[in-house]
Amino acid sequence: MLADALRSREVEVKYQVDGGDPAAAAERALAKQGVSLGSAVAQDDQAYAPAAWSYGQSKIGVAFARLRTEAGRVLFTVKTPLVNELDCAEQETVVADRAAMHEALLLMGYVPTVRIVKYRRTGSWSGGQVCLDVVEGLGVFVEVERLVSADASSLAVQAELDVWVQDLGVPVRRVTQTYDSLLRAVV
């Protein structure tokens, strides 16, 4: 049962960074807040959805899958949005064979949706993890995420994270969709 798996969940906020050199502006602003970002890591993601689901339908309560290749290893992730797209129950594990896991997902009734290629730099701050993403076809984003208990209010956490990002002082636009939905909208 999904409720049993919700001991903790990932809650995030996401912002597109605007301006002349958005990555550099965001990096400077994060550094002023004490966030030191690591080196950029390439992430090649293939998103999957249940065959019966399609873009335009609600994602709430639907389990979505992802295969990510990063630094020579493959991660298999399942996320189920709870209150909104950026509040998810999540499980992740390393898999040995991306092609075999792809075939397994097809057998389980999932279909590939969107491929997402990005370069991610991560850092931490006392309230969670910060990601600076350069997403092919979309631009530069700041993502702030926090693991919370099952009974925490995701909307309250998102509001708190929003204040933190707005205080960075860089021109940002909050987005409430995941990268796959954003990419799908521009295709």
TrEMBL record:
GO terms for molecular function: adenylate cyclase activity. The keyword Transcription does not apply. The keyword Lyase applies. Gene3D superfamilies: Hypothetical Protein Pfu-838710-001. Its EC number is 4.6.1.1. InterPro entries: Adenylyl_cyclase_CyaB, CYTH-like_dom_sf, CYTH_domain. Pfam families: CYTH. This is Adenylate cyclase class 2. It comes from Allocatelliglobosispora scoriae.
